[in-house]
């Protein structure tokens, strides 16, 4: 895909504006569509000086908590291999932890109740300790597991050890073999491999810089140590947009992106939630997934529209200051280069289920059943009341979303083959309210409608 020159100029200008207005030493970005990078940009210099070197799409930046998404995908890969269950308590696999009743799913979604950070020195700016040292520091619960969202870097240290224990290799080697290599992400590493940006802090009241330290955080590394480039993170955005390349099944990726816990701040409206290792957002009905990242000297953001697969990645070498540039770039791109609509065409397979289409009644509630373009069924309007979509499941159907997600739908026909009942999660739908031709649980009053 070749962008219009005006689109490229607008994206370049927005990124340059961010670097100037937010006082960032350097910032790089990329936009992805159809699994490919369609634009990359850079502004500023690596050392923040006017004569410094300009970053490129191959310059490494530290991605902070975006590292957690790789850890989470590797955990789900282990689940898909039958090595664990997300409902397992962590004590099943790491019997030495004092919070063994916490589940793996709770650790992934930050609902374990585990403390946010370690009890030692500021772990992001000091050398790390090993697994035994992390446990010895007294990592403990702050909340009852499963009752609230509480972001936990320490929890991802635990998940890193889980991977290492089950893979028989350090977590980063497992991620390298199972994720990075298959996706061709050759420039995503545990420690910086040049060319790389230095981690810098900008004085809030003066145009001065301060070099931030960089260490191996060992047991806490899974929480935020990986380094990457815009080229590599664009591949990760493509993965998130559905180009899984055999690393994970599309069903497992969809499972990972279902919101689990709302990041609720009393008194403020919320639009974001956490899923299994990923952040999710609902902006005016438009669904996004991705993750932010920050470590001393670095900021990063990855966001993908889960409907279209369009995505953006942004990285800067500053401790603070990154504004709304990620979503601004993606919005600017999508407004200037809208995704072409999928052409409509007739589908002969719809004839197989055409006799199901039309009105159905649950008691006196009326719904319309329609056939979807993908061969599924749509009952009512998804997102409104108990409206839902259904996919084929053997001889029947299964709910894809809404109240009936995961619930079975069975079609019952009379001797002539005419559908007379829909049995949905034990509820019965009939062609007319309390249809006398159908077996309605509880029976029909002998007076009928009167």
UniProtKB/TrEMBL annotation:
<dbReference type="InterPro" id="IPR056008">
    <property type="entry name" value="DUF7586"/>
</dbReference>
<dbReference type="InterPro" id="IPR001466">
    <property type="entry name" value="Beta-lactam-related"/>
</dbReference>
<dbReference type="GO" id="GO:0016787">
    <property type="term" value="F:hydrolase activity"/>
</dbReference>
<feature type="domain" description="DUF7586">
    <location>
        <begin position="351"/>
        <end position="431"/>
    </location>
</feature>
<dbReference type="Pfam" id="PF00144">
    <property type="entry name" value="Beta-lactamase"/>
</dbReference>
<keyword id="KW-0378">Hydrolase</keyword>
<protein>
    <submittedName>
        <fullName>Class A beta-lactamase-related serine hydrolase</fullName>
    </submittedName>
</protein>
<feature type="domain" description="Beta-lactamase-related">
    <location>
        <begin position="16"/>
        <end position="322"/>
    </location>
</feature>
<dbReference type="InterPro" id="IPR012338">
    <property type="entry name" value="Beta-lactam/transpept-like"/>
</dbReference>
<dbReference type="Pfam" id="PF24491">
    <property type="entry name" value="DUF7586"/>
</dbReference>
<dbReference type="InterPro" id="IPR050491">
    <property type="entry name" value="AmpC-like"/>
</dbReference>
